[in-house]
Structure prediction request, 595 residues.
Amino acid sequence: MKKLTSEQLRSSYLEFFKERGHAVIPSASLIPENDPSVLFTTAGMHPLVPYLLGQKHPAGKRLTDVQKCVRTGDIDEVGDATHLTFFEMLGNWSLGDYFKEESIGFSFDFLTKVLEIPVEKIAVTVFAGDEDCPRDTFAASVWEKHGIPKDRIFYLPKKNNWWYAGATGPCGSDTEIFIDTGKPACSDHCDPSCDCGKWVEIWNNVFMEFNRTADGKFEPLKQKNVDTGMGLERTVCMINGLRSAYETDLFTDVIAKISEESGKKYGENEEDTRAIRIIADHIRTATFLIGDERGVVPSNVDQGYVLRRLIRRSVRFARQIGFDSAKLVDLAKIYIEKYKDVYPELQVNAAKIVEELTKEEERFSKTLENGLKEIEKVLKYVQGDKLNGKTAFRLYDTFGFPIEMTEEICRERGFGVDKEGYDKAFEEHQKKSQAGAEQKFKGGLADTSKRTTYLHTATHLLLGCLKKVLGRDDIQQKGSNITAERLRFDFNFDRPLTEEEKKAVEDAVNDAIARDIPVVCEEMTVEQAREQNAVGVFGSRYGEMVKVYTIGDVDKEICGGPHAEHTGQLVHFRLLKEQSSSAGVRRIKATIDAE
Ligand code: SER
Prediction:
């Protein structure tokens, strides 16, 4: 077998398919566009669904790429030798062009000629047939023609040899390619679907000829497609005779750094090795998620929550092996360097990656220690074999422990968690803070049209800019009223503003609008908001969840929303009037040019 590095495998794969008429297309974003049904891009075909359904692709009918993918179904499994949350998928597609014969021929040639894998190490599976689609004797005959003997071709049912992207959409039977690791078969019935470790799947060629409809029917597609996917990490590992993807060049530098800093060697004992793998995997995924062209930041919902879990789990395991979690960001820097030529967005967003990782690490490492103490304490007195839901919620709310982390820690101690109780506590809390937010919101806004929403964002910019221009951090909102025409904003200040000051405030708001800053909303506890110097109404109840709106470096406030998505939507800001409101309180009326 040819011992290729990850970089060599990527380039030889793309080159091979380019020579065979495929256009090389760039990897799509990890955050799917126009597909709210999934959080992340999980396969190379995912961004290509419209083209598999018949839309014309601008690059043609033969495509190839390396797609960054994230699968988070089993974050908790990461730590063993095989699970990864981020991986790269090498793929080639025929959009109504070639079908089974050429596809199998390409795969066979790439594996045996480019990677020089001996034919006798290859085994394949093909679809056994059922009422939806006949037995794939054709694919089997093509494999045989290439020299794969009959006893290395296995017919398996839909469960194994059918590929769906989701409950509906393009799908079809597939032929999967496995490498025999040389381990003895575990039984007479051992076939590639067995997970005894004898077989490693490296490539999947899907013959997409159906569209699965919402009522579970398989309709023939307009065109017959081929969708293939080969796991980069797994293949590099296999051709280099390694036991785990973590031993490949993709991880070498990061693992060396973790070892150097913590004094714990990879492979020396199971517990430390597991922690090293978790950190190496999770920080790689976090780097790609923040650094993505549609990058996300840690939060309590959707992709942001997955990112938060990954970072917080890394912080916990770093602490476990004596690796200073403030240095997790150094691992991200190694990854940026390693991947920047293939994924230039990491370099472009390097500062953001460093900033967001640092912020999240700082946020969590402050509460981690106390949270761990608290968990130890409650586990001592726990009744039965489960931690109660209210306590699990308190750990989340006060110490920032994602529920999955509490579950993991409890599992390590032989306890479960009352998840239902947790969900109930969570829901009750949401209802309360929602009601609170709505109340606050009603106080300031007359209605919720787009324009009043934007005017609301303008009041935040105004507050931030007043503080800056007047050089007074103690300036606060004393009142706010918004109509469709204008905003009215009261603040503590004991003299009229000069003409220069008024102009400077107006200019500063317009500068923020011109910079088109995203308005970011995060949910957090009052304590966390205070820690981040957010201004606004601080509820007195400990652990209350609030929304915090951040507009770049201009303003950060606890607020019920809603707001513009980015400041550019406000178009232009005009100060109409500055006057006295009451003793020590000034009033500004202003408007914006947005419709
Ligand atoms: N879509 C198939 C897979 O993910 C082949 O690319 O395995």
Notes: The first strand starts at residue 23 and ends at 24.
